[in-house]
Amino acid sequence: MIKKLYFTFFCACCIQFSSSQLFAQDNIIDEVVWVVGDEAILKSDIENVRLEMQMRGERMSGDPYCVVPEQMAIQKLYLHQAKLDSVETSDSEVLRQVEQWINGAINQVGSKEKLEEYLNKPMAMIREEQRTNMKEGRIVSEMQSKIIGEVRLTPADVRRFYSQIPQDSLPFIPTTVEVEIVTLEPKISLEETDRVKAKLREFTDKATRGESEFSTLARMWSEDVESAKRGGELGFNGKTELVPEFATVAFGLNDPKRISKITETEYGFHIMQLIEKRGDRVNVRHILLKPKVSDDEIQEAITKLDSVANDIAIQKFTFEEAATYLSFDKDTRNNKGLMVNSGRSENSGTSRFQMQELPQEIGKVIYNMQVGEVSQPFKMINSKQKDVVAIVRLKTRVDGHKANMSDDYQTLKSLVEEKKREELLDKWIAKKQKDTYIRINDNWKNCDFQRVGWIKE
Asked: 387-398 and 176-184: which strand pairing?
């Protein structure tokens, strides 16, 4: 339910800084330094991006006052063409991304008030600026997709690439593994569940009687650590962005003075308070409490899984059958226990993991295992932050190596596809530079630009 903040390079998602933070150079308040088509690039625009990158600790090769405006100019070329081609983007998706960005930014600085203070702007202005930036970023992406079209490759194209690339330039493929998993969730005692519910009813009574603010109680007691920092506030979310049980209650709230009933989800037990509804999105505060698992319950689950592992060893049933019929992990159960990489690497969406991409507890267990071996039961925290007991089986291991056609065809194909896409975009940019009015302030021309064609004689 909680979104992390992911910054995008340059203009698509840049934080806008106040004018008091800018312009150490030449005592100039602002000036137009580039014009691309009918779009101006201001000195303040460039400084905003440079400072935002500096804040994130990003490094760039070259003078930022050359690199940044060139990248901004490329974006202006795409936006100019998008206007000519009437390329648009979904407003609802833009609004979703804006709220995700704002939620993440608030999470970074600690509160809505701190974000407004840091940016020296009211939230309404921050939201509107981000809406513009996000919309332009999405339009640029859609314009790039339109220019590239569908890249079609044949196996001969991939073989040609492989034969022409120097051996010392072939990418190194790190060790990858495929892992199957069976998990059991230890039983939670009725007494523990009753304790959690009683605590939430106590919070409800305190908030309803006015003895404590709901936000204060969330900061003190909620086990959703990130939202607790914001007084339990989740930010605006659509129904599909929340787990179903939570969404049903959240969207059913109508009175900000009333506290919801206790709601159970896969994360634990919640109570909620409405902050605001806006169209098909809702912003609520919540307090999450998780029932605690006792050592006896953990040991009972370990004993059960140890028995399962023994039955697999004597071939009473297979690991895949155990995962299908016994595992509590719904993400892998229908996949016969095979874990799927949901990260952001090139392995995303596949069953392949580099060692560092695995949950830490699983990585430690399989590090010295042999292919086909089943582990002893171990305790871990799952993706819902719950204590579970698991056994794993190492299905495959491919040791680190230089890319080759036999083992890494898909990786090499992806490299060729990316190369083709870059070539198409480079060719388009070069042509667009010739066809577009471009003017650069004389003081900003002394640059070793990545692309020729900016300065026209």
From this structure: antiparallel
Mean pLDDT of 95-119: 80
C-alpha angle with apex 418: 417 to 421, nearest 5 degrees?
A: 90
Least confident interval from 107-116, 255-264, 409-418: 107-116
State which amino acid sits at residue 439: R
What is the reported pTM?
A: 0.67
Q: Which own/partner pairs from 162-171 qualify as long-range (CB within 8 Å, at least 24 positions apart)?
A: 162/403, 162/404, 162/405, 162/412, 167/402, 170/402, 170/403, 170/404, 171/402, 171/403, 171/411, 171/415
CB burial of residue 435 (10 Å; 0-12, 13-18, 19+): exposed
Using an 8 Å Cβ cutoff, are 249 and 290 in contact? Answer: no
In this predicted model, what pLDDT tens digit does every residue of 369-395 receive, in sequence order? Answer: 999 999 999 999 988 888 999 999 999
Residue 10 has pLDDT above 50, yes or no: no
Q: Could you please report the per-residue DSSP string of 7-50?
A: --TGGGGPPPPPGGG---STT----EEEEETTEEEEHHHHHHHH
pLDDT of residue 27: 44
- How do residues 34-54 score in pLDDT, each as one tens digit? 999 888 999 988 887 887 677
Residue 140, φ and ψ in degrees, nearest 5: -60, -45
What is the average pLDDT value for the chain, to the nearest integer?
87
Phi, psi of 334 (to 5 degrees): -80, 0
Place of tokens 């006015």: 210
Q: Give the β-pairing of 172-173 and 176-184.
A: unpaired
SS3 99: helix
What is the C-alpha separation between 402 and 411, in angstroms, rounded?
11
CA distance 34 to 77: 12
Q: Please say whether the beta carbons of 145 and 108 come within 8 A.
A: no
At residue 152, φ and ψ (nearest 5 deg) are -105, 130
Q: Side chain identity at 86, as an amino acid letter?
A: S
What is each CA distance from 387 to 350, 356, 363, in whole angstroms? 26, 21, 17
